[in-house]
Amino acid sequence: MSMSTKQREQTVSGLRGYLRSLSNRRSSGTVTADDAHVYLTKKTNVDAMKIRTRLSFINSAFSNGFSAVGEVASTRPAAKGRYITEWSAK
Fold it and tell me: The domain that contains 76 carries what CATH number?
């Protein structure tokens, strides 16, 4: 079943707010896609197996209001230790 545009916008907005809040609470001030995956798993019905859909939400969330500040190894087993971007809220 497909999401409506409104549902998609609400999911991206919720994800962006979660990431911004998390970034502000951390001493490093950074968040990663790993954090976004945690949100999508716990707070939405976006299936973990639909990786392209998840990446679309994650890319949309980070595209507005965040700056890339570095790279770190992913902690998710599915990412197999690949380096992912660290982001800081603008």
Answer: 1.10.10
For the beta carbon of residue 51, count every other beta carbon within 10 angstroms. 11
Mean pLDDT of 18-41: 97
Q: Residue 78 belongs to what domain range?
A: 5-89
- Cβ-based burial of 76 (10 A; exposed 0-12, middle 13-18, buried ≥19): middle
For the question of whether the overall pTM of this predicted structure is more than 0.85, the answer is yes
Confidence category of residue 49, pLDDT binned at 50, 70, 90:
confident
d(CA 58, CA 16): 9
**Count of structural domains, the chain:** 1
